[in-house]
Amino acid sequence: MARTATAPGAPTTRLGKAAVEFDDRLIVAAPLRRTLNKVFPDHWSFLLGEIALYSFVILLLSGTYLTFFFDASMREVVYEGSYAPLRGVEMSAAYDSTLQMSFDVRGGLFMRQLHHWAALLFVASIVMHLLRIFFTGAFRRPRESNWLIGVVMLVLALLMGVTGYTLPDDLLSGTGLRIISAILLSIPVIGTWAHFAVFNGDFVGEQIIGRFYIAHVLLFPAILLALIAVHLLVLVKQKHTQFPGPGRTEHNVVGNRLFPAFAGKATGLLFVVFGVCAALGGLVQINPVWLWGPYNPAQVSSASQPDWYIMFLDGSTRIFPPWDINLPGDYTIPALFWPTVVVAGAMFTVLALYPMIERKLTGDTASHHLLQRPRDVPVRTSLGAMALTFYVWLLLAGGNDVIADKFNISLNAMTWVGRIGVIILPPIAYAVTYRICLGLQMHDREVLEHGIETGVIRRLPSGEFIEVHQPLGPVDEHGHGQLAYGGAPVPKRMNHVGGARRAIRGFFTPIEEPSQVELEQRAEGRGLATAESERELTSSGRPSDGGRPSDGGRPSDGGRPQEPRD
Amino acid sequence: MSARDTRPGSTGGADTPGPLHGGPDDDYTPEQLAAMRREELDLLGARYDGVEVLHVEPGPEPGSALEKRAVRQVGTAFTLAGVFAFLFVVVYVGSGWFLPDWHWEITERGWSALFTPMLGLFMGLAMTMVGVGLVLYTKKLLPHETAVQDKHDGSHFDRVTAGATLVGGYHNSGLGRRKLITRSLLFMGGGLGLMLLMPLGGLIKNPNKGDPLGTTSWAEGVRLLRDDGTPIRPGDQEPGSLETVFPAVPGGNRQADAATMLIRLRPEQVDALRPREGHADFAYGEYVAYSKICTHAGCPVSLYEQETSRILCPCHQSQFDVTQGAKPVFGPATRALPQLPIGVDDEGFFIARSDYIEAVGPTYWNRERI
Questions:
Q1: Where is it chiefly localized (chain B) (predicted)?
Q2: Which of A121, A255, A295, A492 could form a disulfide with A41 if both were Cys (CB 3.0 to 4.6 A apart)?
Q3: Between helices A108-135 and A263-283, what is the axis angle to 10°?
């Protein structure tokens, strides 16, 4: 290695030498450089998936901590811990250890609540990430496989949630478990067999908490972890999608390199997500199991709701009509089967197959790396709004007893509102969304054709008042803009095209000299003020005015507004 | 001594790398690289990764007011993060040592009630301030560059050559011709797969053996007990009231399907009483007993509104009319709550006259058959 040190360009610092030693052994310089140079598009909506990833990391950390204290056993014990109201009560070891970790482990309650909040955030960010992917068309070829993996991960996240909140074996989670048992029983033909396989017999048995525990801490997280790895590998391999914009094509990614800009932001986000979960975990009480008491099949509390991500199934179950189907031979398909197994199964199947369905219907089999604005794909956007309305409506129906109680409405009326709403609201959402999409599209076209409304009212020599429009680009002899719509946001305000000078920096007091900024802006040709001196606006630039406006200029000409000419 | 030997990864000495070792090291000699500035090297490497830096907006001028201000902000954020982290440690370690005890008592409103909120507050603030500092750093102090990276479509060359290797291997194996091997492999795979799945059979239990879903601990002569284990006589209950009762067997009050509601009807309810077919004599005077387990999803139906004679299940709002044999009158439930035939034993306590004559709890596929 002595020769290395004397070669030209060889590192002279200790750190540099150590790096060479390291690379001599592992040959990581090239892949490292490739990673550091990877370009990430810069848009806030790309961070939703990251939030999901970070909450999963938090879940792994806090969950591992909780396993040190949790006893996944249904053995009956008598509580002797420090929470006085339950002392001497018979309960399962699972509930007992949950109370122990809440009251007798230093910081245990904090960790338990942190875990629960992170779980809620995990599912929520997955759903938001999914909506972003859906509405921007990021699932299109070649990303169908990652969409599919994502849907599977969502289902796993829900299963993680259900098995997780069942573990404490309190009255609320036990009630949920009873409903899970009933759902299993409702499956035609194999229902009772499936139930006996899962519960090792009739409800409730002595196995179920232990089985849910191993599924919750090993099976599901392991599968999830593997799928996350595949999800990210495919993402890196296929590179990010991006919104259309200047210089962005189907064959490139425009944005920041991983190091240092993107890494800084992403790490910052990790800490913020952790901070938010920690603050919620300490400050906002969640699932106070000691108030519910141990599970007892003969007891239930009113307003029994599951965590938010399962509430849509609770809602569909509440509003489904009492329709058992009796088959010849005295076989029955229970009413419960439809709003739970069938609704959930159908929803996730349609969701998983959506990229294939859309490809079939539109015949669009090309690869896409540029995203679409939701308004430009009104049918998909409206379908999404419809599905979302259906989902949110079911979710609200899951809390219909609470709504009835708080707003003093008849419970039966709430049930009927739920039943009618779930049928008529989604089509209404479809129609309204479709009109909104078309309206937004038309407005984009109008601005491209006629220019931005400046808000400047002029009086013509004839006495007519007109509003001056600012063309965005060159116009033809009728005063119509000639820019085509490119799928990117169209500037709608003068400020978007540099109509105003930039704000002077400083929060409480300016830290720049205003006059200096003014001069700087004049030099750059930005801001309305620069054009003020030579300007004389007399026409709206609309064709109705005889099409006399300017020959225009692109925003890239420094965004300098064009003066309509006389 | 040649320059090649100094390349990272080479072993040096006489054992020289083969001709396939090539790559950028052949394009740029160490001397050439040594003559380049760091910025140039950065952009050169980026170009090899398909990245072009289009535009760099430099960070604030070193020494400018803008920079000083940004540095102050970032420094404050990191310092605050450290302060809050230490506060977390102090609260965590100090409680019960030089601070009051953290163990919470239900009556207490002091330090122990604030212990968990303080942990959350300080950890939350510490973590968030780290994040805020990093974001401020990136936004205010780093140069903002716009880079563009090429996306590569699949390469035809790679496909053809990879395909050739794969097909070549398959061809050499002769599996296409040697049918006995492919068939025996398929047979072996099926067998092995089945074999490895078999242990899951340990999970299977026959739900129809002994009819566990259709029977409960209730039987002829079994007393009705309250949750505390005391028996009930007619007259113990007020008219219009409901009591949850359990079979007088060991662990009866913990069984999932045995919980029963004993209801004493008011006189006007007795007049309106219309039992279901075949249940005419199941009541005892003005007393009726129905299963507490909802026939919809198995929750305990607990909310009894005696004005309307309705029992409401709080899980999915099924409603049952106790004067009509507890048949469902609203909500998703399809079947009446099973009725328990009751009587009174020699000592004057309530007893069951038999088990329920139908399965209690949620409906299932072959419920009507057993």
A1: membrane
A2: A255
A3: 130
